Amino acid sequence: MDGRTRPPLSSAKLKLFGWTVEARGEKRPRSGRRPLMRICLVAHRFYDGNTHMMQFANALAQRGDEVDVICLRRPGLPICSVVDNVNVYRIQGRNTGENRPLEYLLTNIGFFFHAALVLAWHHLRKRYALVHVQSIPDFLVFTAIVPKLMGTPVILDLRDIVPELYASRFRLSYDSALIRVLLLIERLSIAFANHVIIANPVWYERIVGRAASPAKCTMMWYYADQATFYARPKRRKDGKFVLMYPGSLHWHQGLDIAVRAFRRVLKSVPEAELHIYGDGPEKANLVALTEKLGLQEQVKLRSYVPLAEAIDLMSETDVAVVPKRASCTFGNEAASTKIVEFLSLGVPIVASRTKVERSLYDDSLLQYFESGNEEDFARAVVSIYRDQELKWRLIAAGLRYTAQNSWVAKIGIYLDLVDGLVRPETVTAPATVVSAPEPMGQPPADADNAVPEAVVVNSGSTENSN
């Protein structure tokens, strides 16, 4: 307990498709007025830990909108709950180890029908002003068919693009029948939506080039919320030099490259450890590889942890690693959201030189290595371990960058987009927005004063020099 008085809990029973579930959460104070809007967000993802969806939902809820989220359910979590004034409906579990196209597709289809029914039921009860659907899959946007037919605008949020994901994950040719079908579904999904949010500049160009007009698209990169991701003093004093990767375990992430390269790191940094947090189809292969190389003591493979705990672990890390495969189209073009979070936490990053990362971050922000090159990966890690000036230069540049490119600074772009779709008469500017980060690694004019005090203090200390 933190000494604060907890607000009273409210509970409600909901009968839905044969279920009776009890939703419990913090009781919200009544303001005496109707909420600004009722909005629903849908994602075939876990809400708890999905920082993209949480940011959108919280931004709406904090200004007074009533927000529902329909999503996947992690084991042990309630079906319905209130999280920071957001109503979360976790309607279906998921096996994160799907490794066959049909199995993966059936999981998506099952969620699609379930979400469509829940969304329609809620909409008929309280009429949403807007529905925001996050891929993948992109055809999940059709869960909003009932609200759409009743005049509700729909946003399709392309966090990942499906044809490239399938081609990468299941090693399919772009000439295959399945990929051609997925490209058709992509076009139909975009046509159905009123507006499309695209996650990074590489994919913005791709989608505009093959499936949508610029007037229908907003490029909105992920920006860390500095109320959550901020630099803090390290408390760990175990003498270890910890490398960390938190996220999904897929082949395109290149974690097998990092594990093999880690043997070279140990030759120069015997106290190093590699901590991998997450789940996915590659987990069993990574466990087997670790055992084969005899690295069970140095490479720790752990499952998902709640967001608050994950942030604490990330902030205690010495070096973050992002070893994606540039040889894989999806790995080369899917931007890592963890990079901006680690930058905001003041953690130096070793990343493979991919097309999308190079479009977002220059050499002043990341310590790059040649993708797939184990020797170069080790060189990049060891250089940060040995060169304290390099380490603090990367940290300071990252903190400047995230101060310029924070969620607080960009939140208005999303809220203006929502308001413009719901109330078009309020729009005073063109709908198309390209929300790109500020120039890569370029500090403001008062750059010396922009470096947080914590960096200045710690840069003269050797307590955590490893």
Q: What does the secondary structure layout of this molecule look like, with pairings?
A:
Layout: E1 9-16, E2 19-26, E3 38-46, H1 51-62, E4 66-72, E5 80-83, E6 86-92, H2 101-126, E7 130-134, H3 145-149, E8 154-158, H4 162-169, H5 177-192, E9 195-198, H6 201-210, E10 217-220, E11 241-246, H7 255-268, E12 272-277, H8 283-292, E13 299-302, H9 307-315, E14 319-322, H10 329-333, H11 337-345, E15 349-352, H12 355-360, E16 367-369, H13 374-386, H14 388-404, H15 407-422, E17 433-435, H16 447-450, H17 453-458
Parallel strand pairs: 3-4, 3-7, 4-6, 7-8, 8-9, 9-10, 10-17, 11-12, 11-14, 12-13, 14-15, 15-16
Antiparallel strand pairs: 1-2, 5-6
Which descriptors would you attach to this protein?
alpha/beta, Rossmann fold, 2 domains, 9-stranded mixed beta sheet, 17 helices, disordered N terminus
Explain what this protein looks like in three dimensions.
The chain is an alpha/beta fold. The chain has 2 domains: 19-220, 3-Layer(aba) Sandwich (Rossmann fold), CATH 3.40.50.2000; 241-402 and 448-458, Glycogen Phosphorylase B (Rossmann fold), CATH 3.40.50.2000. The chain has helices spanning 51-62, 101-126, 145-149, 162-169, 177-192, 201-210, 255-268, 283-292, 307-315, 329-333, 337-345, 355-360, 374-386, 388-404, 407-422, 447-450, 453-458, and strands spanning 9-16, 19-26, 38-46, 66-72, 80-83, 86-92, 130-134, 154-158, 195-198, 217-220, 241-246, 272-277, 299-302, 319-322, 349-352, 367-369, 433-435. Strand 11 (241-246), helix 7 (255-268) and strand 12 form a beta-alpha-beta unit.
